[in-house]
Each structure stands twice: as structure tokens, then as C-alpha cells.
């Protein structure tokens, strides 16, 4: 149960102290229909009084009709009543007090929320008391913008997360067991052989000619075995992602700890930067604190999920039905994530390379195409890379981030993770995934079809570092030991750069 306790004042354009009986009559006989939902009344008027041009009212409710919703309806009805009969208008509605009690089994870890004075847990209820006094207070305008309802949704989604933080994971398929000739850490091995070197940034590598050729071979295999036969067309998606994109894609709800932020200079006037240049040239140290003052707020971040910035191409557009399903891919640049401290090898890096597939069509199109893709991937892993791998059904990122509310229209949405074994530590790593995003993006970016059919989309991200980690950890660097079909794609090992 959720209980609402709300005190508000209506400020009228004229004195209403003589109209007590009018209000009394209205509250006794006129409000039932506006406080009604599914023939249940959820709201009660605890008391009210008039004073000058002010009507003070105290509402209590459960979640059938939330008190904040009741207040919006009351304002409308009172405006009609007073305007029509007495030529008096409602000038303003003030929120004097607002408290919400949410009955819960356990606490949620939320310490501060906008417009909220305090949030605490008393063993039975989460008590949310809104700020009705300070500069950041909740006003009627926020009530109209459904801020209280969003706060309730946020708490509910945190509650749903609770205990279920180990996300849903269900094995779908696993390839046959294999004997592994090789049993070393793929990163160490490549480092030792000079295939890769550490980049200057955390979680960043410089790929030498051999490793690069390996990545390009993976891409060629996906291209020849999957993208070309299935009619995918190449595009170039932007790699600097402004907030607006993540607001529409949903990533703005939770991506903050993991992104690399991008800040432009406050001005490109060379004079403004003169002191920075001079300091560097004299001290040979980059004055980062000074630079911090001279750059603007972040406009967004570096590519995190790859497909969101594609959707700007279709935003607000209507797609001709004869071209559905649309299938495109991008491998034009890097993705960046501020990963947790324990990163060491190429399997979890801050800068990675990924091929991203996106397909758009009707629900049937999307589900059908996902099956075709799964077959193609299976063929690649079974017959060409010949690795030990498996698939699992997992909580899709957008459900993990946003909670599972209001997603019934998304029935059929979900993510398949592809994992491979790294024998040296006997662990499984996620090498790619395949997501059915339902209406997540088509709604977020307002994309319609010509015949008004609901549009769905899917996407799949093939991680080249992860493929390399899986393949090398199972086969090592000796080309002689690699599977025949793979070698046919790989052809010649390029010469590496030898150092003394
Ligand atoms: P993980 O749980 O392993 O961190 P994820 O669920 O964060 O993976 P997604 O957000 O689903 O990964 O990204 C899709 C694909 O991008 C992954 O399957 C993987 O191939 C690749 N990827 C994601 N993060 C990294 C990373 N830090 N380093 C290398 N590849 C990555
Ligand atoms: Zn995607
Ligand atoms: Mg991750």
C-alpha cells in the first residue's frame, strides 16, 4: 500500500471567506466523481478552511487516486465552479505539506532525491517527505509534471532490483566439450609475442599488425558469413554522444559511473588559452586544474553502446513499409567505458572495438530475424572459429536499468548473451550479445511505419577484443593449430614490428 498525505492552499483572485458553505457542499456532494477510479474512492478530505482569498485543504489517499492527482483534478473543478458561479479565479495552488508512505519489505538505498526533504525507512514504510519550503521546493508545477509519480516509480524499481541484483541468467545452449591444447592467459601471450602493447590510458591497448589482422579477420568472417548474405548495409554512427541521444535511448537513467565525459572548450579564442600554452611551454607540465576551469560542462560522452546514435537518422521519420526490415551495421570507431579497477587484459578494456548490427521492422520481422542471426552466429562459432561457447538468456540492459514496470507491451523483448570459455582460468566471458529491444528505440526516437504498424528493433554487438580473448585463449598464437576454415580467412600472418 502507498499512503498520501497532502496539505495545499488554493489562492483565489477574490476573498472567499464567505463561501465556506459553498465549498462544504462541493466537497460533500461534488467531488466523488473526480475522486473515483474503477468505482473505488481513494481520497478523503480530512478538513478544510477559508481565510481571506485562501482555501486550505488537507487530503489523504491511498494509491487508487493519488492525492497529488486528486489535487490536479480539484483545481480544475474548483476553477469551473468558482469561475462560473462567482467570477472568481484560482490564482495559485501552494503545496504546504506532502508526505508519501510506501509499504515495503526492505529498505532501498536512496539518500537524496530532487524536491524531497527527507527519505527514511521505519521498518515498515519508506517515508518520503517533500521539501515545501526551500528554494528547491516542490510546487504545483512539479505536481502537474508528475514529479511525485516519478519518484514513486523510481523507488519501486529500486525495490524490484533489491536482492535480484545478480541479474537473471538462464543457459540456453552450450557447445560440446573440447580438449584445449593451450592454457595460457591470452593477453600475456600476445604481450610476450609483441602482438599488442599497453596504451597510455587505463584499459587501452595498441594493437600491432598481427593482432590487428586477427580483428580484421573476425570482421571479414562476420561480413562474408552473415552481413552480406543477410543484406546488411554499412553506415557510420557518430561516436561522440550528446545527452539528448541517451535521454531518448534510456541510457541517461543510469550510465553515469561508466562513461567517458566530453567537455568542449568554453571558447576557441586563442587568447583565452594563452596562459595554458605559456605554462606548458615554460614548465613542461600540462596545467590540468587551469584547463578544468576553461572547459565547459560535459555535452555528453564517448560512444558507450554504439547503436543509440544511429537513431538520430530516423528520428521523427516514417519508414516506407516495402523496405522493412531495415538491416544496417557500423564498425567505424571505438567504444569507451570507464570499467572497474580490476581490469588487466584485453577482455575488459576502457577502449574497445565492436561491430554493431541493428535491424528494424515489425515485431514478427524482428523475432524472425533474430533466429536467422542466431543460426549464422552458431555456424561461425561452431564451424569456423570452432570454439567452446554457450548462450544464455539474460535481463536486457534496458530492463536492468529501468525496472520491470510497464513493460507488458514489450513481451518478447530480451537479450541473449554469447559467452566463451577461457581455459587458463576456466571462466566464461561475454563475447557478444543479441538484443530484441521491442519498442524501446522506435518509441524513444519516435519512428513510425507507413502502414501504422508498431515498429520494433533489435541490435547485436560483436566485441572484437572478446572474440580475440576467447579464440587466442583456446588456440594460442601458433597459426598451425588454428582451425582450417579460420586460416582460410586469415591467410598470411603479417610481419610484426621487431624491436631490439
Ligand atoms: P560485461 O558484463 O562483460 O561487462 P556488458 O554486459 O557490459 O558486458 P554490453 O553492454 O552488453 O556488455 O556490450 C555488448 C558487447 O560489447 C559485449 O558483449 C562485449 O563484446 C563488448 N564489451 C562491452 N564492454 C566491454 C569492455 N569493457 N571491453 C571489451 N568489450 C566490451
Ligand atoms: Zn545496441
Ligand atoms: Mg559491462
Protein model, in words:
- The protein is built from 14 helices and 24 strands.
- With 500 residues, the protein is α+β, with helices and mostly antiparallel strands.
- The chain folds into 2 domains: 2-163, Alpha-Beta Plaits; 169-263 and 298-490, Bira Bifunctional Protein, Domain 2 (BirA Bifunctional Protein, domain 2), CATH 3.30.930.10.
- Strands 9, 12, 17, 18, 19, 20, 21, 22 and 24 form a 9-stranded mixed β-sheet that branches. A 6-stranded antiparallel β-sheet has the order 4-5-1-6-8-7, covered by helices on one side. Strands 13-15-14 form a 3-stranded antiparallel β-sheet.
- A hairpin with a 6-residue loop joins β10 and β11.
- The longest helix has 22 residues, at 363-384.
- The radius of gyration is 30 Å and the shape is elongated.
- The relative contact order is 0.11.
- The model has no long low-confidence stretch (mean pLDDT 94).
- Bound molecules: adenosine-5'-triphosphate, zinc ion (ZN) and magnesium ion.
- The site of zinc ion has 6 residues, from β24.
- Residues 305-307, 356, 459, 461 line the site of zinc ion.
Report the helical percentage.
25-40%
Tell the overall outline.
elongated
Provide the low-confidence segments as ranges.
none
What are the bound molecules? adenosine-5'-triphosphate, zinc ion, magnesium ion
Relevant CATH superfamily of the largest domain: Bira Bifunctional Protein, Domain 2
- Mean pLDDT reading: 94
Task: Count the E strands.
Answer: 24
Q: Which range does the strand content fall in?
A: 25-35%
What structural category do the secondary elements indicate?
A: alpha+beta
Which CATH architecture of the largest domain would you pick? 2-Layer Sandwich
| Distance between the first and last residues' Cα | 73 Å
The name of the CATH topology of the largest domain is BirA Bifunctional Protein, domain 2
* Biggest sheet features: 9 strands, mixed
Number of domains: 2
User: How many helical stretches?
Assistant: 14
Q: What is the CATH C level class of the largest domain, in words? A: Alpha Beta
Radius of gyration: 30 Å
